[in-house]
Design goal:
alpha+beta; about 350 residues; elongated; three-stranded antiparallel beta sheet; 15 strands; 8 helices
């Protein structure tokens, strides 16, 4: 087949297809009005009615009387009631009820001591007015109570207050310097006393290197003793958040507290963002290597209280410390650090 023949064949095929397409368009437009008309409703109805209904097979149906006769008697509870909702479709009789003739089981929950429910963080005792005494505590995991408040510390409790549910039967009977006395609504149960956790001064905490020698980690610039110190010249850390005040540092602080406040720290009154009330003294800046830093101060700390006495200004803190200089041998400073309350203990040099 030469090129001329191929051309003739192609033109013929194209002409034929064009003719077919033209005929399709012609017949489509001719019948367009007919296609647009909806089908005759009467004819549609007649076709639907002409379909024979499907007959259900008898084998697919079970007589209700047979079900009631065979299965309902198996329910001992309803005794053949046609409205029984406890059908046992296996046809087997239900198992007998458990025997109750055995010894009675004591369902009373185990008794939990107050010391297992709460941890005493700080006790504030007012010897002139017991209503002003307060205790700061946290619930232990065994109490199954979510700690709420700043740093997980719940608001202070006073005498007569109850613990949170489900321990609302435990009441604070009294708050003393020795601890908190808890009373119980449970009949015949005696009161229990829970004291704040104390650090044993005679305990030495050490770390051992691989070679077997002692490794004493340092906290900042404060020296750490290998045993609990009694009268160091410089303030020495001997436990978590615990320091033994040095004799030289105590004398220096008494004579130069104004210089320390001017050179070592920059302070400001702190306001509670929720209430707008002043609730502490914030350390805006702490000079590195200063006297204040050697005693545990950090930038951003908010001093909340001293030995349970709330402070809202530097003048108030200095006044309280001077008035009670001879009243305490241990100073407990509650500080909010990174959103959590921590208690720092400063022990006076032992006599």
């Amino acid at each position: 087949m030469n090129i001329g023949q191929v051309k003739i064949f192609s033109w013929s095929a194209a002409g034929l297809l064009t003719a077919c397409l033209g005929l399709y368009v012609f017949f489509f437009w001719r019948d367009l009005e007919t296609k647009r008309r909806l089908p005759d409703a009467a004819k549609v109805q007649a076709v639907l009615e002409a379909v024979e209904p499907v007959q259900a097979k008898a084998a697919d149906l079970v007589a209700y009387e047979d079900v009631r006769r065979l299965y309902l008697p198996s329910c001992e509870k309803c005794k053949g009631d046609p409205n029984c909702r406890h059908l046992n479709w296996t046809g087997k009789p239900p198992p007998p009820p458990p025997s109750t003739t055995g010894p009675a089981v004591d369902e009373k929950p185990p008794r939990v001591t107050a010391a297992d429910l709460v941890k005493i963080l700080m006790v504030k005792v007012d010897t002139t007015d017991a209503a002003q005494s307060a205790v700061y505590l946290k619930y232990r995991s065994k109490a199954a109570v979510l700690n709420t408040g700043t740093g997980g510390v719940i608001p202070p409790l006073h005498e007569g207050d109850h613990l949170a549910a489900p321990h609302q039967g435990v009441r604070l009977a009294s708050i003393t310097a020795q601890g908190v006395v808890f009373a119980f609504d449970e009949e015949g149960r005696e009161d229990e006393t829970v004291s704040p956790d104390e650090f044993a001064l005679g305990t030495t905490i050490v770390q051992v290197m691989e070679e077997g020698g002692l490794m004493l980690p340092a906290i900042g610039a404060i020296p750490r003793a290998s045993a609990a110190p009694w009268r160091p010249t410089k303030t020495t850390a001997f436990g978590q958040n615990r320091w033994m005040l040095g004799t030289d540092d105590v004398a220096y602080a008494n004579d130069n507290y104004a210089k320390i406040l001017a050179d070592d720290v920059r302070t400001a009154r702190h306001q509670d963002p929720r209430t707008g009330k002043y609730d502490g003294v914030e350390l805006k800046a702490v000079t590195p290597g200063s006297f204040a830093e050697r005693h545990g101060a950090q930038e951003g700390d908010v001093v909340k209280s001293i030995n349970g006495h709330p402070v809202t200004s530097v003048q108030e803190a200095i006044s309280y410390a001077k008035m009670n200089a001879n009243q305490f041998t241990t100073w407990e400073i509650v500080v909010e650090r990174n959103g959590r309350l921590q208690t720092f203990y400063y022990h006076s040099p032992q006599q």
